[in-house]
Structure of Rhamnulokinase:
Amino acid sequence: HPAGTVAAVDLGATSGRVMLGHVAPNELRITSVARFANGPLQLNENGRPALHWNIVELYRNVVAGLATAVAAAPDIRSVGVDSWAVDYALMRGGRLTQLPYHYRDARCLPASDQAHSRLAATGFTAADLYAANGLQFLPFNSLYQLEADGVSGSLETADTLLLIPDLLNYWLSGAVVAERTNASTTGLLGVHSRTWDDDLITRLGLPAQLLPPLIDAGEPIGTLLPSVASEIQAPGEITVTAVGSHDTASAVVAVPSDRDDCAYISCGTWALVGVELNSPVVSDSARLANFTNEGGVDGRVRFLHNVMGLWLLSESVRTWEREGLPIDLTELLAQAAAVRGQVAVFDADDPCFLSPGDMPSRIATYCRERDLPVPRTPAEFTRSILESLADAFARGIAQAEDLSGHPISVIHLMGGGSQNRLLCQLTATRSGLPVLAGPVEATAIGNVLVQARTAGMVTGSLESLRSLVARTFEPIRYEPARSMAQ
Ligand code: LFR
């Protein structure tokens, strides 16, 4: 009987969790065993507040979560780690040389300009870069962060680069590898070859020897180090398995449908809006629309666009709470749904919303400068944010269809955002397409299923994994409303 249990470690930019997945050919049960907060750590850097990840605290929470997981399910056979993308640790002799930077750190924007000039000096244009790596421009793509590390001298003291999940896998298993879905977000992987692009790496003046050997999601990485196994009191051997270690890659595994005519929105801190393809689209129009071709599990392509996501709302809530205005999210969303009359629809993708800090006043300034109605209350801000996100989602879906020629007749909205009924309804109405909401824990489910397939608990293509998800987690359906007033 192939039934068994695996543990998924899923680290998001605002929280992390350890989940148990019990899987058999017709069974998929997910339970949460540990949750912990995550967030930027601000440290003085010669007078500049630099943003880092508290990666050792995260690791401590992961180990504690795994100990709880093993206590609850002593038969765990495998563990897999996924996290947000692009960020990395620099190592020397197996040790961290500095705390990993947070992708919202201010060093990225100037560094991206510098990297572009460096490429231009070798005769490489933005179009050449897109033809090589297929990535949308985001100022924090790892290649730009590496430019900053090159200038500061940090690369000179490093012998290895490990992306966040690869770092945790190294601490858990001792193996030094780069999982391919997440490696695709560095900007250093060829979009067709899906191997490190030596030509691009040379043009950027980066040391190629920093980059570990690539492995694919589904490959076993090793077993837990004896020291870790005894720390978590594992009763038996536990394999560390590579999953789609980019959280979005794992989420896309768990789209609850085996149909081809669907799009996905994986909505948490970020909202990733797009379709799955078998080959990349690197046309000029895809580049100008800022669509990315990230690597998916089983060699698929995640053709998508990053929309700012629930960050706009959570950072607003943080601001109000700092100002002494306690927020009950359920109540706030009910008030936002009841707002009548025009609210501003702003460009949720505007880079001015990227950094941490007072979000409501940035939104107000944005609206004032463009003669849009300026929201006044938290309810109006919330409504304006959700309308703007839904508008960006609808545009992203329409563009994904146009640019790829992949017909879309239904949208799967997954992740934390799928619990936001107003957002789901507005997305259906603005896109004119039905929205199927859920599962909330799509990322952990995708992480679990890839491990389960490697362990032989399930077999088959992504489509058969997805139909198991669809049978287990029935989505909630939202139809487009006839009028914009819902
Ligand atoms: C989502 C995500 C996005 C990536 C952003 C930054 O959690 O991984 O896919 O663009 O975070 O890493």
Notes: The first strand starts at residue 4 and ends at 11.
